[in-house]
Every structure is written in structure tokens, then in C-alpha cells.
From TrEMBL:
Residues 1-89 form the OmpR/PhoB-type domain. Keywords: DNA-binding, Transcription, Transcription regulation. It comes from Nonomuraea mangrovi. Belongs to the AfsR/DnrI/RedD regulatory family. Pfam families: BTAD (PF03704), Trans_reg_C (PF00486). This is BTAD domain-containing putative transcriptional regulator. The lineage of its organism: Bacteria, Bacillati, Actinomycetota, Actinomycetes, Streptosporangiales. Residues 1-89 bind DNA.
Length: 931
């Protein structure tokens, strides 16, 4: 939403594309005062003080009414309320209030680990500024509000720069930082950031010059030497500290952490010295005893130089956790091995030579943990579990009991405030005693007090006393958690309880407000869910998980599931309530990603509509990426509830997301569940679609025989209208296997069959045109994708055309086509097609006699292919690098690239690629012989 009222610069009201400045001056002051309290009543006295200051005229109230009347002709929504006025606009319509909200949201996102998203939020927030805050507004109002806004602006800018530096964007922020230190020469943090940005950009001498300039300014202006932050930046530059960033993955430490000094000392004393054997510690105790909070707090105080890894285990398999851990240690997404043994070996190799701390939270058994223990010298592991895991070799365990009375009261004080506890110390001790010293129970009780400022501690203590039969169970293992959660559950409003227990039907660790709205729906009409989610978050039962997402502890989810079973019955009834919404959202996103697929009804042909389609395609890909974890869990939930029709359809709808993002593990898991559901439901069409999806995955991973088998099985189940689509895919498999005659037969057969299917026709024209090297067929396919409004298909054919005309030595045409494909892919945010276009441009550069340019572009493409696990793209990029290296007389580099490419082509079963690689190898051997 764009702000309509502008205060971050000269005051203005945005009317369409024009900014209108209300006048005269006192009218602007009055409007600014109302805008700064948008949606809230402002008393007449406060408005009079804002307009006239400490000495208003006797007629001030009467004149104020005249000013209000005049403003109403310019601004809608000014209401008279008892004692004052209210401007009924949303806070986000006021740029200053929108700026404050966005900065707060960015900080929460940053604290949750979303550095890139936080940087983008801050960048968007800072973009709202057009000049000095409240520029042109005179008097106390500007002095009181402009200075904090300007200070927040500087802080936000420095925070965004810090995030950019953390993301390796130092070279991009140097100009911005030079302007900042010029405007604010005494801000040491800005000088330190400028030094680090210069150093990151490889300009070390300029970074040291910046330090001298900063020091001179501080000494001359303040008579002070630089502070610790600036000195630390100077030391880093002097040391040429170019080490890569290390992972720091633990969740944020809780602000009110209390006690546990003995176990914290035990952990600190166990840290291994460099070169010593790794140490593995287990923190165990009942649910709600604060194991996770303790592990996170302890991790923050340990100094292991190569970072901290964090994994929440719950019921996850070791293989799934290892996939996350090796990625955190720098393994590209697509390079993660498929088997558990291979992942274990890679993990141990990556931690060898590093001193890392690994926090493994909520382990259920020794078997779940063994493969995750780092074996490198000097490493350390902190495991939390309900059991001591005595079978875990070489591990030491520490039992966690409840908090001591003094620690429990201190924790309560941290949640509700020292003043309220000091006013009723005996009642604070009583609450701590009734909660049994259990941290989770204390946190829930404290949150009830924090949310209700009118409650006394005695009132809450009396409530807890009435439940003494249930609260007695707080000291008894799992029942302690259940009764603690019951305290928070009973304190909720009706709709909050409904939502919490219905969320128990889902196994996803996080979710967005739209699913809450569906769960709260009445008579098929969704209700606003964000307010209820926020209330549950305030109650401590949910947590914010980045921008517009919420999550919860698994124990809370289990309790919610129990409440659901007791109060409403089976989870399947709740899943039936939301399955339609889940499917509809996934289907719509799929339709936007695949315009004019049969059943979508989307065909956007005109230029403006194609531009809109491109924007929507990019948005749908981003939405599905954000919802990926939830959607994968939803397939499992629907399958487990035997809602087979919904399960297989959702698995099918999600396929394009997994294909574009190279999420192969999720793709295979959901497709297999969907296939099982389709079989269980006796739905041949569903089985055929899921077999086709699995075949696409097998083909992408080079398992061509498996792909062919799946497609042949699908053909026996495929409905008449879908036979050609399956046959087309079978032709692609034959093409990859080198059986060109069978591939051409399939493509030609499909072309004849797709008469009434424009998307099928475009796909077949492209496949046949690429196989035959037919420019005419490819251009017909290109026109088909354009008429469909499918920029992804258009970009793909443009690359095929570029490769074809490049082979005919029509270099300019090849470059034009590849650059158009590159532009489309960038607008869509599709990294793999973007890399493919860059690779074609590298081959164009080779044909133009520019091997150095070609090698650079091919290496950039190679990095993307490796990150996304695209073996075929990687092999093609390596061939281009090899050819460029030969032209540059770098024969050894060429030989290495050829060897790697041949390995990829062999794994993929790509005979044509192997032939090209062997031809280059022959030339490399000849060059070596001439040396």
C-alpha cells in the first residue's frame, strides 16, 4: 500500500499521481498532528498546543474548528469525537507511521534470521523519505516528532548497511556511506561501516585513509579518540580479515532468561581446546523445563570461532537434518548427496578443520542424533531431549529440574515488570510456587499478567489456586507441560481457543494468516485471522517467524491437537474445512506459473497483458517459495487423514514450484505420497499425473530408464486428452538417451494430436524444432507462447533459437535472442533460465573471438547451476569454459573442465554431450602434444 499522506519531507496529500500541499501553515500543523495519531482521537488541548504553542489566543478553540472545517474540504475522514478530533485513515496511509512499522518489522525479521528480507524491508522503508521530516511544519510538533524520526532514519540506514555488509554487498554501499559520514561526521558507526565496505570491496588503503579521517574529525571536534567499534574495524582491516562469514543460527536469546548458573558453568567448562577431542553434552528434563532456552542462552556465551549451527529435530530424520546442516556449512543446494551415508561423510568433511558449536534441539533418541555429531577436533555439541540419551557414546548428560524459588520470581519479574512484582512480592512468590517453578508455566502465567494491566498478581494467584488439582501435576513430567499450556488456553478468548486447537490438525512448523482465516471461517466465509494470531503470539503460544509468518513449539502443537480431539473430534473434519482453500491457492499459483495449461483459462496475448503476466508469474513463484514448507506438510496431513483426492491434487499442483526451485527432495516426497493417495482413491488420472511428475524429476536427475518406465506406466492410465502430454515427455527422455528417431516420432505424433491445445502445440513445436534444428518450427512455437502469455516458455524458445542461429553463424541474431531471454528470466526471478541465457551469451562471445569474456560468463552461469543442482547445465557450462580455456592456451584448466563435464554427461546418460566433450578432449591432447 502506498502512503497517501506524506510527512517525511514537506507535508503533502497524494492525489493520484500528484502531491498536493495543504495551506496555510497552521492548517498544515493541524493536519500533521492528526496524521501522527492516525486512527486515534486527539484532544482539543493537544491540537491547540500543537498549532499555537504555549500561548494560544483566547479564541483558539473556535479558530481550531474553522481550521478543521477547512481541512475537511481537502482531506476526508476527519471526525469529531468527544473532547477532540480523529482522522480515520489507516496508519499505513501515513508515510511516517508506515516507516516506523516497517522498521520494526524489519528488525523482527532480522532477529529471526531473515537478513536479506530485513535489508529489503529497510530499503523500502527508507525509500519513503523525500526530505527532512515534517519539513515546513513549525513549532513544538516538529521539534518533538521530527528529531526522533530523523534519528530512526539514521539508525535504519546503518542497520540496513550492516545487513548489506553481512550479505557481501560492501561495494554497493560505499557511495551511500560516504554521503552519510559527510552529513554526520561524528557518527562512528557510519565511519566503521565505510571502512568495512571499502575493505570488502578490496580497497584496503582507502579503508585505512577513512579511519585516519574519522580519527582526525573526532579529535578535532570532540577531543576524543575513536571508540571500540571504529577501532575494531581498523584492526580488522589491518589484519586483512577476509575470512568468510560463519553461521550463527541459534534463535534469539530470551530477554528474561533467569538463573541456571550451575549448568551454564558446567557447559562453559566443557568447551574443548583447539585440537582436543570433540565434546557432546545432553541437557535433559521434562517438557517445559526450559531446555531450548538454556541451550540458546549458553550458545551465545561460547566462543567457537567457526560459528554455531542449529537444528530443531522433533520427528525429523537424520538425513533431512543433515541436508540443512551441510547447506549451512556452504554446500550448494543441488550438491547435497541423496543417501544418508553420503550426507554423513560430507558433513564430517565440512566440519573437519573447523571449531563449530552444533545445537540439536528436541532429540527423541540416540539414533536420531548419532549421525549429526561433529567429529572434528575442538567441536562441541549441545543436545536437548526429554531423555538423558545414555546410549549416546562419549556424551555427558545434565538433568534440568525446575527453577529455584528466587529464580522463578526473577523470571516472572522479567516478564511482567519489576514494579508490579515489587508491589506484591508475596503474591509473586505464590504464583511461582503454584507454577511449580516450571519455566513454561511461569512464562504463560506472566504473559497473562502482561496482557492485562488491570490484573493484580493476587487475582492471578487466586485463579491458579482454584485449579490446584490440575496445577499439582506441574511437577510430573509431561503432565506438567499439559497443565501449564492449559493455563494459557483457558485465558484465551473464544476465537483464540478455536484457532489454537484447529491449528493442531496441521503439522507444519509455520503458517501464514490466510490459513488462520480459513480455520476460523463460518458458513464458508473466511474471517480475519491475523488479529487472533497476534493475540496467540502475545499469549506466548505462538511465535513470529519472519515477515507475515507464525510458528510454534511442537509441544504446543501436540497440546492443541489433544484439545481438538477432545472438543471437536477428529482432525480430518478441520482438514476438510481448509482443504479447499489450500488447494485453491496452490492451483491459482500453478495457473499463473503455467498460463493456458488446460483448465487454467488463462491466455494473455497483448503486450501489456504479457507484462502483467510476467509480474504475476514472479509473484506466484515467490508466494509458493514462502509457503513451501507449509504445503509439503499439508500433503502429508491430507494423505494421513485419507483425504486422498485433496492429497494427490495438491502434490500435483506443487510440481512447478519444486521444478523451478530445484527442491528435489520435497518434489519426490510429495509426488510419492500423492501417487499413493491417487492409487488408494482408485483415480487413474491422478496416478498418471503423479507418475508424470516423478518422471520429470527422474529426467532432471539423469535417471532416464526410471523416467521412461514411469511414463509408460502413466500412458496406460492416462485420459485420452492427456496422452499427447505424456508422449511428449517420453520423447524428451528418448532425446536425452540419444534415441533421436524415437524422440522425433513422439514429437511428431504429439504435434498432430495437439490441434485444439495451444499450450501442447507450443510445447511440441519447441521440442520438434530443437530436435530437427528447424528455425521455422521454433518461431511458430515462440509465437504460440507469446499468444498464451507465457514468458517462461517464450524465454526457453528464444534460447533454443539463439543456439540454432549461432550454429548458422548469425551471431547478432543469436545475441539479440539470448539477451531477450535473459531479460525475461530476470523479470521473472528465474535463476536457472537466467544462467542458461548467460551461457548462450558466453557461446556467442566465443564465436566473436572473445574467449576471456566467454569464460567469465560461463563461470557465472556454472555457479548458479551448481547452487541449484542442475547437472546438465553444469556440464554445458564446463564445456564452454573448456573451449574458452583452450583458446586462451590454458590447456590444464581446459582438461580439468572437460573431465568434470564428462562425469556429468555420463551420469546423465547424455551421449551427445559425451561426444562433444570427447572432441574437446582430443583437441586438448593435441595442444598438449604441441607444447
Amino acid at each position: 500500500m502506498s502512503a497517501r499522506f506524506l510527512l517525511l519531507g514537506p507535508l503533502a496529500v497524494r492525489d493520484g499521481e500528484r502531491d498536493v500541499t495543504p495551506g496555510p501553515a497552521k492548517h498544515r500543523v493541524l493536519l500533521a498532528a492528526l496524521l501522527l495519531h492516525a486512527g486515534h482521537a486527539v484532544t482539543v488541548d493537544r491540537l491547540v498546543a500543537a498549532v499555537w504553542g504555549e500561548e494560544p489566543p483566547a479564541s483558539a478553540e473556535a479558530v481550531l474548528r474553522v481550521y478543521v472545517s477547512a481541512l475537511r474540504k481537502v482531506v476526508e475522514g476527519i471526525r469529531t469525537v468527544p473532547g477532540g478530533y480523529l482522522l480515520a485513515v489507516e496508519p499505513d496511509e501515513v508515510d511516517a507511521l508506515r516507516f516506523e512499522r516497517m522498521v520494526a518489522s524489519a528488525r523482527r525479521t532480522r532477529d529471526a534470521g531473515g537478513a536479506q528480507d530485513a535489508a529489503e524491508l529497510l530499503r523500502e522503508a527508507l525509500g519513503l523519505w523525500r526530505g527532512p521530516a515534517l519539513d515546513g511544519i513549525e513549532g513544538e510538533l516538529r521539534r518533538a516528532r521530527a528529531v526522533p524520526l530523523e534519528e530512526l532514519r539514521l539508525a535504519a540506514l546503518e542497520e540496513r548497511v550492516a545487513l548489506d555488509l553481512g550479505l557481501g554487498r560492501g561495494g554497493e554501499v560505499i557511495g551511500e556511506l560516504r554521503a552519510l559520514v559527510a552529513a554526520h561526521p561524528l557518527r562512528e558507526r557510519a565511519w566503521a561501516q565505510l571502512m568495512l565496505a571499502l575493505h570488502q570491496a578490496g580497497r584496503r588503503s582507502e579503508a585505512l585513509e577513512a579511519y585516519q579521517a574519522a580519527r582526525g574529525t573526532l579529535v578535532d571536534e570532540l577531543g576524543l579518540e575513536p571508540g571500540p567499534e571504529l577501532r575494531e574495524a581498523h584492526d580488522r582491516v589491518l589484519a586483512e580479515d577476509d575470512r568468510p562469514s560463519v553461521p550463527h543460527e541459534t534463535p534469539p536469546d530470551v530477554a528474561d532468561f533467569t538463573g541456571r548458573k550451575a549448568v551454564l558453568g558446567w557447559i562453559a567448562a566443557a568447551v574443548p581446546a583447539p585440537g582436543a577431542a570433540p565434546v557432546h553434552l545432553v541437557l535433559y528434563g521434562p517438557a517445559g523445563s526450559g531446555k531450548t532456552a538454556l541451550a540458546v542462552h549458553a550458545a551465545g556465551g561460547l566462543d567457537l570461532p567457526d560459528g554455531t549451527l542449529y537444528a530443531s529435530l522433533r520427528d525429523r530424520t537424520p538425513g533431512a537434518v543433515l541436508e540443512d546442516l551441510v547447506r549451512s556449512l556452504g554446500c550448494p543446494d543441488g550438491a547435497v548427496p541423496t543417501t544418508l551415508d553420503e550426507r554423513v561423510r560430507l558433513y564430517r568433511s565440512l566440519v573437519a578443520g573447523r571449531r563449530v558449536l552444533v545445537v540439536l534441539d528436541d532429540a527423541t533418541s540416540e539414533a536420531q542424533v548419532r549421525a549429526l555429531l561433529p567429529t572434528g577436533a575442538g567441536c562441541m555439541t549441545l543436545v536437548t531431549s526429554r531423555s538423558p540419551l545414555f546410549g549416546l557414546e562419549a556424551a555427558r548428560a545434565y538433568p534440568l529440574d525446575v527453577l529455584e524459588p528466587g529464580e522463578a520470581v526473577a523470571m516472572l519479574e522479567g516478564i511482567v515488570g519489576a514494579g508490579r512484582v515489587a508491589a506484591e512480592p508475596e503474591q509473586a512468590r505464590r504464583i511461582a510456587r503454584l507454577c511449580g517453578g516450571l519455566p513454561l508455566a511461569l512464562r504463560i502465567a506472566g504473559s497473562r499478567l502482561a496482557r492485562r494491566g488491570g490484573w493484580t498478581l493476587e487475582y492471578l494467584a487466586d485463579l491458579l489456586g482454584d485449579e490446584r488439582g490440575r496445577l499439582d501435576e506441574l511437577s510430573a513430567g509431561d503432565l506438567a507441560v499439559r497443565s501449564s499450556l492449559a493455563l494459557g488456553y483457558r485465558a484465551l478468548a473464544d476465537d483464540e481457543r478455536v484457532l489454537l486447537r484447529r491449528l493442531g490438525a496441521l503439522t507444519s512448523p509455520d503458517f501464514a494468516p490466510w490459513i488462520a482465516a480459513a480455520l476460523l471461517s463460518r458458513d464458508g466465509e473466511p474471517r480475519e485471522g491475523r488479529r487472533v494470531l497476534d493475540a496467540l503470539t502475545e499469549a506466548g503460544l505462538l511465535q513470529e517467524r519472519g515477515l507475515d509468518r507464525y510458528g510454534w513449539h511442537d509441544l504446543t502443537r501436540l497440546y492443541a491437537a489433544e484439545r481438538l480431539a477432545e472438543e471437536e473430534g477428529a482432525a480430518s473434519a478441520v482438514l476438510a474445512r481448509v482443504a479447499g482453500e489450500i488447494l485453491d491457492r496452490a492451483r491459482r499459483a500453478r495457473e499463473l506459473m503455467l498460463p493456458a495449461e488446460p483448465g487454467s483459462g488463462l491466455t494473455l496475448a497483448r503486450t501489456a497483458e504479457r507484462d502483467l503476466a510476467t509480474t504475476r508469474l514472479a509473484e506466484s513463484a515467490r508466494w509458493l517459495a514462502a509457503e513451501r514448507t507449509f504445503m509439503v506438510a499439508a500433503v502429508t496431513d491430507l494423505h494421513r487423514a485419507r483425504m486422498d483426492e485433496a492429497a494427490w491434487r495438491l502434490a500435483f499442483y506443487l510440481t512447478p514450484l519444486f521444478e523451478l526451485g530445484a527442491y528435489h527432495d520435497d518434489w519426490r516426497a510429495t509426488a510419492l505420497l500423492g501417487l499413493e493417495s491417487a492409487r488408494r482413491a482408485g483415480h487413474p488420472h491422478g496416478q498418471a499425473l503423479l507418475l508424470r511428475s516423478l518422471a520429470d524429476l527422474d529426467r532432471a536427475e539423469g535417471r532416464l530408464e526410471e523416467a521412461a518406465d514411469a511414463l509408460r506406466a502413466a500412458l496406460s492410465l492416462t485420459e485420452q486428452g492427456e496422452v499427447a502430454r505424456t508422449t511428449l515427455r517420453l520423447g524428451l527422455v528418448y532425446r536425452a538417451q540419444g534415441d533421436l528417431a524415437e524422440a522425433e516420432r513422439c514429437f511428431a505424433e504429439c504435434l498432430a494430436a495437439f490441434g485444439a491445445d495451444p499450450r501442447g502445440m507450443a510445447d511440441a513445436l519447441r521440442a520438434l524444432g530443437e530436435l530437427r534444428g528447424s528455425e521455422e518450427l521454433l518461431r511458430r512455437g515462440l509465437e504460440g507462447y507469446r499468444e498464451l502469455g507465457d514468458p517462461r516458455g517464450e524465454a526457453a524458445v528464444l534460447l533454443d533459437l539463439a543456439a540454432l542461429v549461432l550454429g548458422l553463424r548469425r551471431t547478432k541474431e543469436a545475441r539479440d535472442a539470448a539477451e531477450r531471454a535473459l531479460g525475461l528470466s530476470r523479470r521473472l526471478g528465474d535463476r536457472l533460465p537466467e544462467a542458461a541465457a548467460a551461457l548462450v551469451l558466453a557461446n556467442v562471445a566465443m564465436s566473436e573471438g572473445r574467449p576471456d569474456t566467454a569464460a567469465t560468463a560461463a563461470r557465472d552461469a556454472l555457479a548458479v547451476f551448481e547452487t541449484h543442482g542442475d547437472g546438465r547445465g553444469r556440464a554445458r557450462a564446463l564445456l564452454t569454459i573448456a573451449a574458452a580455456s583452450l583458446d586462451l592456451d590454458e590447456v590444464d584448466e581446459a582438461v580439468d573442465a572437460i573431465a568434470s563435464a564428462m562425469g556429468e554427461f555420463d551420469a546423465l546418460g547424455d551421449r551427445r554431450g559425451l561426444t562433444e566433450a570427447e572432441e574437446l578432449a582430443t583437441e586438448a591432447r593435441r595442444r598438449r602434444g604441441l607444447r
